């Protein structure tokens, strides 16, 4: 399988090259040149498949250069946690993606990638430097996923003062091969600096850089698994609507990729906070990236979602086709708070702020847009729950007026000493730091 850039100005590359490079040399994002499809018999038997079965089957179609037994081991080990589908009644479901070590869905990508990278790397290779911008959860997942992996160094850029206390502790206390850079700017500044590093020829001569952001195709592969697994868990085989709380739109892109591979989905709901560039595009047909705004669902504070390029490519650069696949809506912090409170009170179900944005979007869809995708009332709506509420304790506790218990794996990092380097939001500063540190 070859991978091609969404900008179409770079040569097709192998899986190893697409994964280890992250961004294509023409600044585009990699997608498969020809879409693989799961067999009808596999799809018909989905309800009997485990997450690991699905994972291995899909990975095999995308990953070259790693033997079957190794790849099967990787998928088993990376996906060693539960992904329950909870019913909230009225055909509304929540797919809990937060049972991994850092309590957010980013664990899927990070745990899979770290193992894939180490299988692809050769002993003789230079150290690989994973450079990742994080709006909060990627950093901690990547720090955990790559911690103490031989031959790999991790450098995380996060916006100073714009991640939660717990997120910051998670990403600055890993130590060993993981370093955190605290950037005086927004997530978009971090993302821009990282992109600049990847396209800086002289830097790439000296360091072998790789990315762990959702610009990396290797991260999106494991995110397809749970879409299929959600359908496997429905009691009646049906074609659901997936609602995806979105920031950089990697998660929603993975859903479209799953659909390309034969997954039956009626449509996708793109739920955002005030950073509503994509819902606005869906309404007006214009894509206007702009600086991100701070919200309580901070992992979605993205003003220039990089996977938009993949969405457009996957749907043939056709606005009408994009609209037929995706409906979008954005919600304010006060709407988000209100829905957390309401669902907790009425259904005894506690959602983190990101999941709540998704829930609110489904509410709105049902009340005013039902039938947009020509579906029936009985079509299941599955909200991807992207993080555990305890991760956003500071926001949630005042809303529900109660203390929430912290899972043990989260407690572990809270008393450790934060270690980070403060950096200006300036690419030259980053370059200097990288060369000093890793060269
Ligand atoms: C990263 C993240 C998102 C956004 O996912 P994208 O793939 O960037 O759209 C949503 N919720 C949480 C909790 C996240 O960590």
TrEMBL record:
Domain spans labelled Tryptophan synthase beta chain-like PALP: 87-366
UniProt cross-references to InterPro entries, sorted A to Z: Ser/Thr_deHydtase_PyrdxlP-BS (IPR000634), Thr_synth_N (IPR029144), Thr_synth_N_sf (IPR037158), Thr_synthase-like (IPR004450), Threonine_Synthase (IPR051166), TrpB-like_PALP (IPR001926), TrpB-like_PALP_sf (IPR036052)
Cofactor names: pyridoxal 5'-phosphate
GO MF terms, alphabetically ordered: pyridoxal phosphate binding; threonine synthase activity
Domain spans labelled Threonine synthase N-terminal: 2-78
GO biological process, one term: threonine biosynthetic process
Gene3D superfamilies for this protein: 3.40.50.1100, Threonine synthase, N-terminal domain (3.90.1380.10)
PROSITE patterns given in the database record: DEHYDRATASE_SER_THR (PS00165)
EC number(s) recorded for this UniProt protein: 4.2.3.1
EC class: lyase
Keyword Cytoplasm attached: no
Catalytic activity of the protein: O-phospho-L-homoserine + H2O = L-threonine + phosphate
Pathway: Amino-acid biosynthesis; L-threonine biosynthesis; L-threonine from L-aspartate: step 5/5
Matching SUPFAM superfamilies: Tryptophan synthase beta subunit-like PLP-dependent enzymes
N6-(pyridoxal phosphate)lysine modified-residue sites: 106
A Pfam short name: PALP
Keyword set, alphabetical order: Amino-acid biosynthesis, Lyase, Pyridoxal phosphate, Threonine biosynthesis
PANTHER family: THREONINE SYNTHASE FAMILY MEMBER, THREONINE SYNTHASE-LIKE 2
Family: Belongs to the threonine synthase family.
Annotated protein name in UniProt: Threonine synthase
Lineage: Bacteria, Pseudomonadati, Balneolota, Balneolia, Balneolales
């Amino acid at each position: 399988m070859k991978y091609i850039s969404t900008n179409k100005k770079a040569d097709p590359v192998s899986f190893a090259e697409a994964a280890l490079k992250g961004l294509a040399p023409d600044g585009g994002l990699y997608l498969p040149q020809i879409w693989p499809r799961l067999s009808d018999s596999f799809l018909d038997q989905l309800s009997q498949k485990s997450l690991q079965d699905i994972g291995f089957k899909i990975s095999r179609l995308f990953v070259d250069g790693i033997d079957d037994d190794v790849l099967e081991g990787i998928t088993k080990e990376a996906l060693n946690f539960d992904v329950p589908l909870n019913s909230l009644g009225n055909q509304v479901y929540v797919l809990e993606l937060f049972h991994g070590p850092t309590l957010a869905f980013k664990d899927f990508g990070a745990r899979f990638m770290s193992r894939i990278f180490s299988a692809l790397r050769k002993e003789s290779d230079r150290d690989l430097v994973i450079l990742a911008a994080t709006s909060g959860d990627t950093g901690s997942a990547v720090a955990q996923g790559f911690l103490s992996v031989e031959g790999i160094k991790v450098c995380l850029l996060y916006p100073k003062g714009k991640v939660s206390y717990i997120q910051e502790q998670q990403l600055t206390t890993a130590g060993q091969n993981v370093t955190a850079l605290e950037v005086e700017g927004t997530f978009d500044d971090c993302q821009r600096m990282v992109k600049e590093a990847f396209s800086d020829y002289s830097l790439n001569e000296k360091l072998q850089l790789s990315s762990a952001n959702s610009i990396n195709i290797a991260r999106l592969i494991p995110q397809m698994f749970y879409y299929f697994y959600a359908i496997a868990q429905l009691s009646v085989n049906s074609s659901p609507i997936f609602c995806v709380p979105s920031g950089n739109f990697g998660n929603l892109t993975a859903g479209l990729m799953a659909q390309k591979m034969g997954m039956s989905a009626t449509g996708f709901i793109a739920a955002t906070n005030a950073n509503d560039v994509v819902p606005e595009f869906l309404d007006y047909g214009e894509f206007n990236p702009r600086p991100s705004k701070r919200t309580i669902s901070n992992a979605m504070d993205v003003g220039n979602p990089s996977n938009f390029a993949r969405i457009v490519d996957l749907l043939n650069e056709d606005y009408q086709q994009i609209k037929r696949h995706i409906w979008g809506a954005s919600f304010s912090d006060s709407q988000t708070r209100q829905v957390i409170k309401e669902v907790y009170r009425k259904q005894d179900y506690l959602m983190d702020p990101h999941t709540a944005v998704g829930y609110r979007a489904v509410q709105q869809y049902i009340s005013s847009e039902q039938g947009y995708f020509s579906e029936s009332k009985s079509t299941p709506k599955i909200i991807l729950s992207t993080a555990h509420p305890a991760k956003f304790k500071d926001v949630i506790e005042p809303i529900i007026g109660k203390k929430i218990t912290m899972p043990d794996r989260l407690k572990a990092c809270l008393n450790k000493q934060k270690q980070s380097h403060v950096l200006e939001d300036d690419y030259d500063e980053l370059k200097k730091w990288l060369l000093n540190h890793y060269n």
